[in-house]
Amino acid sequence: MADEPRALQRDALLRAAALAGFSTMTERRLEDFRQDGLMPRPVRVGNDGRRPVWIYPLGSDRQLVQLLGWREHTQNVDVLRVVLWIEGFPLALDAVRASATAVLTGLLHEVEQDLQAEASRQGLDPVAERDAVVSAVATAMAAKRGKNALPRPIRVPAGERATAVAHLLQIFALGKQPDVTEAEAETIEKVLGVSPGRRQRVEGAAPWLTGPASALVGAADFVSLPRMAEALADATDTEWEEARSAAAALFLQLPVLTRAIAAMTGKENFAGMGGHTAFDSEPIMAVLLVAFALGARRADWSRNVEGLSDALAPWPALVGEMKQVLDMPQHELDHNLAGHGPEMRDRAQRIIEALLDDELQGRARCDDRRQRGPV
Asked: Which of 283, 294, 279 is nearest to 243 (CA)?
């Protein structure tokens, strides 16, 4: 009988999936993942009697578990490929580039379809009367309520909100730079929910949002869908690899930081950072953040992005230290907090609750999953 290879065979991957809570994972589904390029192919290393022995690269078990976790949020193969690449798994860059391009192209197509449909409903020319079409779409979006409505982190009068949404569509969806007054730009910040970042401080640090609000219009040069699509197409392989770490920090670490801040302060949108808390619940954000990181390089914003990435780097270790509190005996925790006031005790309780609810780990971290349904 051949020696057991020091690598992973198929059954080891299936066991890893089952232990992570994905008990219905099958060999057929694994083959589908291989066909889609989301899992590596095994290599034949010998025989066990007459039976060929195939092994997977080390780390394939974790890749499978993470893939299954992300599939709970999306089954779009292109999006999943980019997410796994951002997490550091060995996917071919050419395939990742093609997938990211396909996703951005699809989003641009959806925007154009929505504008065409609204122009038809309003009896407007979709080209000559584009501003009126955008305004009509924005008015509907701003007024919508319910599950798929835009978030309303800060109260804004309906008319001002509609105007702000129209400007946001011009800037981010179409790549235009509309004429926006400083007052209108301040309203845009409120609609986005970031305006508290001008006055609220995180742990004594200076406010992160500074400068004129109208500078937001210039962001169309690198964070709009058209410019990000261009950045994906033009970037070299080296630039893609450099953008990988920045996108990973923004997609995987920034949400953990903002949830930690919410736990510490008891405010969901403290310092205007609440909009980042769900980044890692929306896998398509991984694609947009790669494109953002590449676009920022073209607009000489790379230092800003790199600075933010460096600031986020310590957070996984800090969260790990926070988790040690969960292993602390209750009497010891009570003793440590006894000398502090009610505000500190309340903060500690909120952090403990966030840790227990897994709010301070990535959304697709699958180490402690329970039984799940079909995959």
From this structure: 294
